[in-house]
């Protein structure tokens, strides 16, 4: 089990990034959450099997059509045993 905290920068707000991420996460079988931050980045925590988390991280580095990801800061954190994936209110 692996859990990561991710900050994605670039043109990632207003392009469906979070909602597409929710679909990608569901398809990959990972749990966690995502939200927009006021500085224009997208924040997320992703938890699941290491290969599934890696697959979601690979998608996050590209993003949906219309986005331009310039970077992703990934930090491993302790697993929380979460279930489901949610889009949270902006932080």
Question: How does this model look, in words?
Answer:
The protein has 91 residues and is α+β, with helices and mostly antiparallel strands. It has one domain: Alpha-Beta Plaits, CATH 3.30.70.100. Helix content is 27%, strand content 40%. It has two helices and five strands, in the order βαββαββ. A five-stranded mixed beta sheet has the order 4-1-3-2-5, covered by helices on one side. A hairpin with a 5-residue loop joins β2 and β3. α1 runs antiparallel to α2. It is globular and about 30 Å long. The mean pLDDT is 97.
What is the total tally of β strands?
5
How many domains? The number is 1
Spatial separation of the terminal alpha carbons: 27 Å
Characterize the largest beta sheet: strand count, sense, and whether it forms a barrel: 5 strands, mixed
Which regions contain 5 or more consecutive residues with pLDDT less than 50?
Answer: none
Question: Topology, please?
Answer:
Elements: E1 2-11, H1 17-28, E2 31-36, E3 42-48, H2 50-62, E4 68-77, E5 85-87
Parallel strand pairs: 2-5
Antiparallel strand pairs: 1-3, 1-4, 2-3
Structure described in brief:
The protein has 91 residues and is of the alpha+beta class. The protein has helices at residues 17-28, 50-62, and strands at 2-11, 31-36, 42-48, 68-77, 85-87. It catalyses: an acyl phosphate + H2O = a carboxylate + phosphate + H(+).
Key phrases:
5 strands; five-stranded mixed β-sheet; Alpha-Beta Plaits; alpha+beta; 27% helix; 40% strand; 91 residues; globular
